[in-house]
Each structure stands twice: as structure tokens, then as C-alpha cells.
TrEMBL record:
Domain Glutamine amidotransferase type-2: 2-252
Taxonomy, superkingdom: Bacteria
Coiled coil ranges: none
PANTHER family: GAMMA-GLUTAMYL-HERCYNYLCYSTEINE SULFOXIDE HYDROLASE, GLUTAMINE AMIDOTRANSFERASE DUG3-RELATED
The protein's name: Gamma-glutamyl-hercynylcysteine sulfoxide hydrolase
Organism expressing this protein natively: Sphaerimonospora cavernae
Pathway membership, UniProt: Amino-acid biosynthesis; ergothioneine biosynthesis
Keyword Hydrolase: yes
Stored Pfam families: GATase_4 (PF13230)
CDD domains xref list: YafJ (cd01908)
Enzyme class: hydrolase
Lineage: Bacteria, Bacillati, Actinomycetota, Actinomycetes, Streptosporangiales
Catalytic activity: gamma-L-glutamyl-hercynylcysteine S-oxide + H2O = S-(hercyn-2-yl)-L-cysteine S-oxide + L-glutamate
Length: 252
């Protein structure tokens, strides 16, 4: 129900990753090619990026469609980065609008996105939410399924979990509580990327010519080097290495 992308690599303009590719995230907001659920991603967007002098990323988020935002066009034209995470949103019914509900969500050095839907939200996962510290619930950025997913992931990260297990365990927990949920999760700290393919499309591309790895809901061009990640798989990546680990579905 969204499209998202993470980039690690040589210093590039944001626009060279998000808006210049013929099928980039900008175009995916109104004409995605591989999206299985929904057709338009116009319920908000966001981009987070890292500067070399600061491990805490900057973010720009808005509640409207990315194609109608002239400020984004200016930012994409002039800002350079070695790492980013961006998303365009198609909202789950019954969730908040507004830019606070648009990915990427953030805490410290982390950026996070969720492509999918928690089935039966919020009732199906009320017990999962009850397991969080009260401060985590009070700090939710928005009343939406993705914000709760992020709180569950962040709780694991703060407890010392590595990025891959934090995503995999959260996906398994939510899938057990809310069967049929789509839980493509994406996380970066500017040096590594972790992602789950769980119910929707996920691809990666290694670009040695710019020392880069790209992880995305769908390819932004027709480069034959794009590789589709099998469903129920955990991806972890650096600029030079990609690892895929099968994940088990929870028992019914």
C-alpha cells in the first residue's frame, strides 16, 4: 500500500535516486509497476537523508502527493547524500492522515518505513501494543498501523537487537496476531539496510559503478541487475554485501 526505497553508496543528489529514474519513486506515486495492492500513493510522502558530519538524519515529510510539492523538487535538485530512505504513502483505511503518518519514521540514527497493512488494526494487535512501555505509546508519531510497527521495532533496537532480527521478530509477532498482514519493513542507520519481504514486492540492486546498494519496493529502471527478494525473506545489506535469510511464517 506504499512504495519505499533505501540507498547506500557514493555521494549523489537525492533526485538522482528518487525523481530522475524513469520509474523512480516520484513516478511510483501515481503509476507503480509492481504494486499488488492499491494503485496511487498520494496520501503523503517523506525522505530522510544523512549528512557526513552528523549520524542523525534530516527528514522532509508532507501530507500531500510528492508530485505536487515544489519544495521537494528543489531539495532533490541540490541536496547530496550517501544514504537515504524515502517513501510515498497509500494510507490504510481508518488511520491518520497528515505528515506525521508518512514515512520515514525516525529515532536517533534510525530511519524506518513500512509498506503494507496490519490486518484488523487496531483491535487485532492491541495485545502487542500493551506489551510496549507506556512512554513508547505516548511517543507514537501518528495513529496508524505503521507508527505502531515502528514502535515495536524500536523497542527491540533499544533493547540491543540487531537491525535484521528486530525487523524479523516484529514481522513474525504481528503476523501471528494479525494473519494476512503485509509487513514489508525497511530500516537504515546510514551504514546498513535491513528489510523484510512479507506480503508485497521487494527488490535490490548492486551498483558497483557508484559503490551502491539500493533496496526498493520495485525497480526504478529496467536495469537487468535488479533482483527480486523472495517472499518471507530478511534482507541485510551494506554498500558491498547483500545477505538473504528465509523467514518462517508463524503457525496458524
Amino acid at each position: 500500500m506504499c512504495r519505499q526505497i533505501a540507498y547506500l553508496g557514493d555521494d549523489v543528489l537525492i533526485g538522482s535516486v528518487l525523481s530522475e529514474p524513469v520509474h523512480g519513486l516520484l513516478r511510483q506515486s501515481w503509476r507503480p509497476r509492481r504494486q499488488r495492492y492499491g494503485t496511487v500513493n498520494a496520501d503523503g510522502f517523506g525522505v530522510g537523508w544523512y549528512a557526513p558530519w552528523d549520524p542523525v538524519p534530516a527528514r522532509y515529510r508532507r501530507s500531500g502527493p510528492i508530485w505536487a510539492d515544489p519544495v521537494f523538487a528543489d531539495l532533490a535538485r541540490v541536496i547530496r547524500t550517501r544514504a537515504l530512505l524515502a517513501a510515498v504513502r497509500s494510507a490504510t483505511e481508518g488511520t491518520d492522515g497528515g505528515e506525521s503518518a508518512a514515512a520515514p519514521f525516525a529515532s536517533g540514527r534510525w530511519l524506518f518505513g513500512h509498506n503494507g497493512k496490519v490486518e484488523g488494526w487496531p483491535h487485532a494487535v492491541a495485545k502487542n501494543a500493551a506489551g510496549l512501555p507506556s512512554v513508547a505509546l505516548l511517543e507514537l508519531e501518528a495513529r496508524c498501523d505503521s507508527a505502531l510497527v515502528w514502535a515495536l521495532v524500536l523497542h527491540r533496537l533499544d533493547a540491543g537487537a540487531a537491525p535484521g532480527p528486530a525487523l524479523a521478530d516484529t514481522a513474525a509477532e504481528l503476523a501471528a496476531a494479525a494473519p494476512g498482514s503485509r509487513l514489508n519493513l525497511l530500516l537504515t542507520d546510514g551504514d546498513t539496510v535491513a528489510a523484510t519481504a512479507w506480503g508485497d514486492s521487494l527488490y535490490y540492486l548492486v551498483e558497483p559503478e557508484r559503490g551502491a546498494v539500493v533496496v526498493a519496493s520495485e525497480p526504478y529502471d529496467d536495469d537487468p541487475r535488479w533482483i527480486e527478494v523472495p517472499d518471507h525473506t530478511l534482507l541485510t545489506a551494506t554498500r558491498t554485501d547483500v545477505c538473504l535469510t528465509p523467514l518462517k511464517e508463524p503457525p496458524l
